[in-house]
């Protein structure tokens, strides 16, 4: 009788070990798949980060350029240049040479 009692326990023990092994394998497969998807997501985010950094650098350069232009706009030279270009004004000691207009 002892043999009969021992055999079902061994079968049950082997079956339980196999069941636990299958569960461990499934958990490892799920973790591996999740790790792979997280790695891909990480790479996508790195690309996005690089693009955003480039946009930020461009925006910073634009800010610097605009600040320099603002400083220039507060100078006397800017006012003189605008008066010459837009209004056609000249200083009293300047000589203006204009090309002849073509006659049709």
Protein traits:
rod-shaped; 2 helices; 104 residues
Main sheet? none
- Our estimate of the beta-strand percent is under 5%
Radius of gyration over C-alpha positions, nearest whole angstrom: 41 Å
Give the beta-strand count: 0
| SSE pattern | HH
Oligomeric state of shown chains: single chain
Low-confidence stretches: none
Any overview of this molecule?
The protein has 104 residues and is mostly helical. It is 81% helix and 0% strand. The protein is built from two helices and no strands. The longest helix has 72 residues, at 2-73. The radius of gyration is 41 Å and the shape is rod-shaped.
What would a concise description of this structure say?
This protein has 104 residues and is mainly alpha-helical. The chain has two helices and no strands.
List the helices and strands and how they pair.
Blueprint: H1 2-73, H2 76-87
């Amino acid at each position: 009788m002892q043999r009969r009692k021992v055999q079902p326990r061994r079968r049950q023990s082997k079956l339980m070990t196999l069941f636990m092994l299958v569960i461990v394998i499934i958990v490892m497969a799920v973790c591996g798949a999740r790790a792979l998807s997280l790695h891909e997501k990480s790479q996508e985010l790195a690309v996005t980060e690089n693009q955003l950094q480039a946009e930020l650098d461009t925006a910073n350069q634009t800010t610097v350029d605009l600040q320099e232009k603002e400083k220039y706009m507060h100078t006397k030279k800017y006012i003189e240049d605008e008066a010459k270009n837009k209004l056609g004004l000249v200083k009293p000691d300047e000589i203006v040479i204009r090309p002849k207009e073509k006659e049709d």
